[in-house]
Specification:
This protein is an alpha/beta fold. It has two domains: about 140 residues, 3-Layer(aba) Sandwich (Rossmann fold), CATH 3.40.50; about 130 residues, Glucose-6-phosphate isomerase like protein, domain 1 (Rossmann fold, 3-Layer(aba) Sandwich). Strands 1-2-3-5 form a four-stranded parallel sheet, sandwiched between helices. The chain has a four-stranded parallel sheet with strand order 7-6-8-9, with helices on both faces. It has a two-stranded antiparallel sheet with strand order 4-10. Strand 2, helix 3 and strand 3 form a beta-alpha-beta unit. About 5% of the residues have low confidence. One of its GO terms (molecular function) is mannose-6-phosphate isomerase activity. Belongs to the PGI/PMI family. Keywords: Isomerase.
């Protein structure tokens, strides 16, 4: 498992670290994600509005644990007349055109690979600039006025509600993913129309609002303004997390928002005395789905800590027993 220091170092060095192909592929473009590539595909919707094309280039973002559906998507696109471009953290050589690093930060590499390949190099560079600015504000050596560390303190011991406008529906997905995988804590996204949820969710049991915090992610709209007014009478705290300064509700802003969430999640893990790296059980589950075994190891990119995750026998209880002993 990646140590806290190693993970924070990787996080600080992430902006500008994409080193894959940058040549644009023929359009029109579409993108679909499976496994580790699902979140990146959602964040890319501001650049590429379609998930399937019969011409041009079909980007398929995947990982070894979701190789079968990725292979199906690529084959369907090719049969329809498109060129499939497979971007993955590993798998059989024939299923990978672009190999990206695996782990919780793979989303950045998937997204930047597609941004460049779809002819949006300017947006990719804008995302890197915004992330570089955030790294300077959120790095571990910044002790005072560190926005990520301060927000982690606010979330400690709480399961936040996650709300965003319809054009930013990838953000609650991103925050839930990172708060769980990296921050080791539960959060609750409110998908769709928030008004139906916030007006009724606390009526039968008002005490469920005690100590509750809601995060409003990205830009607000009239419905979110009303939702906020309602929540102010039902929960303890509401925190608005806008897009980073210098960005807006586009690809650069959403990727930078994801990056800020990663910093918050890392510091939240620190508060819980947890390591922000992936737990061994996740690597074991992914390996089972990927069909890995000692006699037939397929191509796989290095994990975040630069080493292949060790996969042992399917002793699912071993992690829980070890935690109880600790």
């Amino acid at each position: 498992m990646t140590s806290a220091t190693d993970f924070l170092t990787l996080l600080e060095r992430l902006p500008g670290s994409y080193s894959g192909p940058t040549r644009p592929e023929p359009g029109p473009h579409a993108v679909v994600g499976t496994g580790e590539g699902t979140l990146a595909a959602a964040l890319l919707r501001t650049l590429i509005g379609s998930n399937f094309t019969r011409e041009g280039t079909q980007f398929v973002l995947s990982s070894p644990d979701a190789a079968d559906p990725a292979r199906t998507y690529a084959e369907l696109a090719e049969v329809a007349g498109a060129n499939a471009r497979r971007i993955s953290t590993g798998g059989q050589a024939g299923d990978v055109d672009v190999l990206v690093p695996g782990g919780a930060l793979a989303t950045y590499h998937y997204a930047q690979a597609v941004a460049h390949a779809s002819g949006h190099a300017d947006e990719a560079q804008a995302a890197d600039r915004a992330m570089t600015t955030l790294a300077g504000q959120c790095a571990p050596h910044v002790q005072d006025n560190n926005p990520a560390r301060d927000l982690a303190w606010s979330l400690w011991g709480r399961a936040p509600l996650l709300i965003a406008a319809p054009d930013a529906d990838a953000l609650p997905h991103a925050w839930q993913h990172l708060l769980a995988r990296t921050g080791k804590t539960l959060s609750v996204p409110l998908p769709g129309d928030p008004l139906a949820i916030v007006t009724g969710a606390f009526e039968a049991q008002h005490e469920h609002g005690d100590g509750r915090v809601a995060l409003i992610l990205g830009d607000t709209d009239p419905a979110l303004h009303i939702a906020r007014e309602i929540l102010e009478s039902r929960i303890d705290e509401i925190i608005h997390i806008p897009y980073p300064v210098g960005t807006e509700a586009g690809y650069a802003g959403q990727l930078a928002h994801w990056y800020f969430a990663a910093w918050v999640a890392a510091y939240l893990a620190e508060r819980y005395h947890q390591t922000p790296g992936d737990p061994p059980m996740l690597a074991r589950a992914q390996a089972v789905l990927a069909g890995d075994n000692a006699d037939d190891l397929s191509l796989r990119a290095d994990h975040e800590d630069g080493r292949r995750s060790q996969v042992e026998d399917n002793d699912w209880e071993a992690d829980d027993e070890a935690e109880e002993r600790d």
